[in-house]
Amino acid sequence: xxxxxxxxxxxxxxxxxxxxxxxxxxxxxxxxxxxxxxxxxxxxxxxxxxxxxxxxxxxxxxxxxxxxxxxxxxxxxxxxxxxxxxxxxxxxxxxxxxxxxxxxxxxxxxxxxxxxxxxxxxxxxxxxxxxxxxxxxxxxxxxxxxxxxxxxxxxxxxxxxxxxxxxxxxxxxxxxxxxxxxxxxxxxxxxxxxxxxxxxxxxxxxxxxxxxxxxxxxxx
Length: 220
What we know:
Helix 6 packs across helix 8. This protein is α/β, with parallel strands linked by helices and about 220 residues long. The strands form three sheets. It has a five-stranded parallel beta sheet, with helices on both faces. The mean pLDDT is about 85. The chain contains eight helices and twelve strands. The longest helix is centred in the middle third of the chain and has 16 residues, at about 105-120. The protein is globular, with a radius of gyration of 18 Å.
């Protein structure tokens, strides 16, 4: 499958391209909105990873122009912004999903694969089911059984990082880098605060501590 990355932050674009290529995708990269619009219009892509803040033409306009032209390629929007209005605007222009920077690469890959599955099988759900939890990566909602659990944005980001690798051990440095980004220079023990909060809300046995290694989201 061929993906297009439209991202003006070149270091990030190159990193994403290398990672997605390693996942088995063919990847093209451009760094401005107009080039992204032209390439997406001229070639058949399976998915577009589209930044919002782009030179020349922002991601909202690129997305809207593609949809107006009848192009239904799945679009995953990336942005450094964070807020309901920004997300609503992105989805209103026709984007299929929305990811706020800084984001986990593991989560991005999971979102890409989920969108591709939904395209191949219309109606497929973006919900990750882990034990008694349902983690909706699109609506950013968590259900425990029939009850919705209210999480903060950071709590959800930590849980999502664990959910996409459910049953596996996820190290504290990895969570710190992916949820807070590589530039975070605060106390790394902040992760323990969010793990404790998640345990209070989801159940103490939901997340296991693997001493010296990290945390595991229990699958049963």
